# Entry
Amino acid sequence: MKALVDVLQQSPVLLVAIAVLLGLMVGSFLNVVVHRVPKMMERQWRAEHAEMNGQETPPAERFNLVVPRSKCPACGHGITALENIPLVSYLVLGGKCSACKARISPRYPIVEGLTAALSGYIAWRFGLGLVTLGALLFTWSMIALAFIDLDTFYLPDDITLPLLWAGLLFNLGGVFTDLQSAVIGAIGGYLVLWSVFWIFKFATGKEGMGYGDFKLLAAIGAWLGWKMLPQVILLSSLVGAVIGISLIVLARHGRNVPIPFGPYLAVAGLIALLYGDAINKHYLALF
# Structure
């Protein structure tokens, strides 16, 4: 084991290559998470609702992140191992199901490629160590949450809450910030968006965001510390404004059609993870 660690420390290229391959595999798994976690949540809600109303629910087919096997949504063709190789299978199949030739969503290779690219970059930037391990876990979670929110307008507690506790756990040893800053970041992240939510609701009578957004910003604060929160909030707001205006102008996206805020928080969190210290130093230098 020590010999492997020594080799990886002396060969950044090998470390990056391993991180990219790992990212491809994790990206394939994240596609499963993005697709199945909302369906698992829906099943759980229905079961709880039926139980509260004294209704009996028929036994459902087992459904989790492992079973049943992935299949084509158009024809039900079971995806074989050779058809499930990250990126490669999509390119070989021409983006179509091997059985019915229905188009496969480009989101699958996008998630795999994005996860691989960011994983490789993180390994190159931080090297071998706990920082890289934590940064990878943080990044993979951000990708999963962003795409789930894009699809469903939900940020599941099953991801946001463990992510928050994991951030505090890593910062017990000061991996990204000191524990005090992490705790204040978690509390502050939640309260900031909670306050915005209620101010907006009292002013307009409408809900401007979901509770999942509070928890996501709290998780980001737990990982990166309270000093990163103003940057994350500003960056997410700028990205959201640019994309929102572009959708309205170019894609004729109705102004009353909601846009999920989670992906913008995730993007801002990743920027703060990778460049937050440099951005803060540059910003403070202006004053």
